[in-house]
Amino acid sequence: MLQLTVNGRTRAVDVEPEMPLLWVLRDHLNLPGTKYACGIAVCGACTVHVDGEAVRSCSLPVSAAVGKKIVTIEGLSEKGLHRVQKAWIEHEVPQCGYCQTGMIMTAVALLAKHPGPTDADIDATMTNLCRCGTYARVRKAIHALALDSAAPAAKNA
Amino acid sequence: MTIALSRREFLKASAAVGGGLALEFRFPVATAAVAGAGVTEVNAWIVIHPDDRVVIRIARSEMGQGTYTALAQLVAEELDCDWANVSAEFASPNEHIRRNRIWGSMSTGGSQGVRSSQDYVRKAGASAREMLVAAAAARWKVPAVQCAAASGVITHGPTGRKLRYGEVAAAAARLAPPKDVTLRDPASWKIAGKPLHRLDIPDKVRGKPVFGVDVALPGMLHASIAQCPVFGGKVASVDARAALAMRGVKKVVREETFVAVVADSWWRANEALKKVTIEWDAAGNGHADNQTIAAMLREGLADTKLPEARRLGDTQAAFAAAAKIVEAEYQSPYLNHATMEPQTCTAWLKPEGFLEVWTSTQNAEASMAAAAEASGLPLEKIEVHKMMLGGGFGRRGAPQDFVRQGVAIAKAMPGVPVKMMWSRECSTTSIARQASRG
Q1: What is the model's pLDDT at position B308?
Q2: Together in a domain, B160 and B279
Q3: Which residues are registered as beta bridge partners of B249?
């Protein structure tokens, strides 16, 4: 049995230590919001947070996540929607939406480190693949969020 | 209306499975039962709740193009309800067959979803509105022409009396639909054609289980498959001994064109599949590649005996008279559609001889036909639950190989729901059934 901390809860799972975290989340912990697409950490659809870092869970053995805080799209916000999710709705970012939970998890981690990311920051970090081509709206939503968080400081100045 | 599997049945089945299984009950909303509880189907497209919530049935598929919302907007425009009360659900393909294809085409492709159904879905909205107005007029015992509907409320002009749609929906549903309706001038539209928020996005940003790959049923097993990476290829031999000894593996299914490993989680199925030794019979096509295919096409172009598909003008005379001739050649190789969501099909052959299928399909009727062919069951004994698609690009329309595979696996595991999902490797090497298009 492995003990995992997922979305603030301790969960025990009887799985192989080499099973990728993605499949533990999807098939053993009933958290299907994290998606499988490439299986080789290229596309980012499986992105979750492990101790606050955006991690591609399809290629992370579950044993490497033991003792760490795992957050999935389902646990991103304790009450209601996270502000990044709200921005994604407001700016109508998703098309088919399949890659977007991973996209959102990556954006949340980016904004935590860079509250006002430049286009270069976004390009360097948001390497998730989207087959519908939502990149322009991803950028727009992230910039809008940066402006929102910058606004109170600007008012005080 | 009969829904193949009610929520109650699901919950019962879920409870019966109980303890050992870590999975909680998870059943994505695809087709919801609306019978009883004062909920009224005014017509096939429109369901109205007593509290004025309006559910609009969508016959086409949603793969990111927004049709799920756009069609709802067109219906809601003519119905003239409050958009804030509107939600959508996919129409049931089984019911579609039993009701003589009442929802028209379910095929979704070629940018036709809205343009080829906009007229009849608007008429469905207008027809329902007239029936609601007629029901209110009958209750007031006044002529319907004195009544008007707007934003889900019917008003009797001379007296100012009002009734909400939810109050008259049941009475309206008992009326005969009008023989003809006049559609509104698009210049007066308030809902259709407006940039409203898409109905499917909130669930998608929350990570709700809306896609085909998200289906989870009590006692469900998982399957990963290998298929011949060559056109027309077949399975020649299979050695599955090592795979069968692996943790969680329940069965190895050999079919004519693919091999499936069924296990208690998808990763275990896929790991075991890697240990299955498969020899393929490439059916003589083992050396086909882009060059040989291009050569074959070029040969076809040069063949003067081929039937003529279309002739426009006199090209030879035009070339002969041209001052300048510009020549260019364009080719398109076989390309993978590369949907982000791999092809997937969950199938459950139930003991009573009813087959349930959950899949991401661009054409639910084609999925029904493929399921019928693969199961040998009549269409009436099959339900296809339409899930949201993680991309389509045509891959999920005409080619329904994934449904045939899912159903074949279900036949080998009777009574047990099995979710089949292609690995990315399987998706990328299985271009055999994909069209040459961008």
Answers
A1: 82
A2: no
A3: B263
User: Which domain range does residue B167 map to?
Assistant: 30-205
Q: Is the pLDDT of residue B3 over 60?
A: no
Residues of B in contact with A88 (CB under 8 A): 201, 205
Chain segment B322-339, per-residue pLDDT in tens: 999 999 988 887 788 899
CA pair distance B132, B148, nearest whole angstrom: 10
Q: Smallest CA–CA separation between B20 and chain A, in Å?
A: 11
The shortest CB-CB distance from A96 to any of B209, B265, B340 is to B340
* B44 and B152 housed in the same domain: yes
- CB spacing of B206 vs A129 below 8 angstroms: no
Residue B191 sits in the same domain as residue B254? no
For chain A, say whether B218 makes contact (Cβ under 8 Å): no
How many domains does chain B contain in total?
2
| A74/B64 CB distance under 8 A | no
Q: Kindly report the CATH number assigned to the domain that includes residue B145.
A: 3.30.365.10
Which of helix, strand or coil describes residue A14? Answer: coil
CB–CB of A132 and B200 under 8 A?
no
**Chain A contact for B420 (CB, 8 A cutoff):** no
pLDDT at B19 over 80: no
The CATH number that domain A83-151 falls under is 1.10.150.120
- C-alpha dihedral (A36, A41, A42, A46), degrees to nearest 10: 40
In this complex, is the C-beta atom of B152 within 8 Å of any C-beta atom belonging to chain A?
Answer: no
Q: What is the DSSP letter of A25?
A: I
Would the CB atoms of A94 and B206 count as touching at under 8 Å? no
Residues belonging to chain A: 157
Q: Which residues of A touch B201 (CB under 8 A)?
A: 88-89, 92, 94, 97
DSSP tag of B91? P
Q: Tens digit of pLDDT for each residue in B53-68? A: 999 999 999 999 999 9
Q: Looking at the structure, do residues B275 and B383 belong to the same domain, yes or no?
A: yes
Would residue B323 count as lying in a domain? no
This model's pTM is above 0.80? yes
B65/A contact by beta carbon, under 8 A: yes
Rounded CA separation B360/B384 (Å):
10
ipTM rounded to 2 decimals? 0.95
- Flag whether residue A17 sits within 8 Å of chain B, measured between CB atoms: no
What DSSP element (H or E) covers B418? strand B418-421
Tens digits of residue pLDDT in A103-138 = 999 999 999 999 999 999 999 999 999 999 999 999
Q: Do B341 and A33 touch (CB under 8 A)?
A: no
Residue B51 sits in the same domain as residue B106 = yes
CATH of domain A2-75: 3.10.20.30
Residue B10 lies in a domain: no
Indicate whether B168 and B251 sit together in one domain: no
Does residue B47 fall inside a structural domain?
yes
- Residue B405: C-alpha distances to residues B170, B252, B259, B266, B336 (Å): 43, 13, 10, 16, 19
Higher pLDDT pick, B292 / A49:
A49
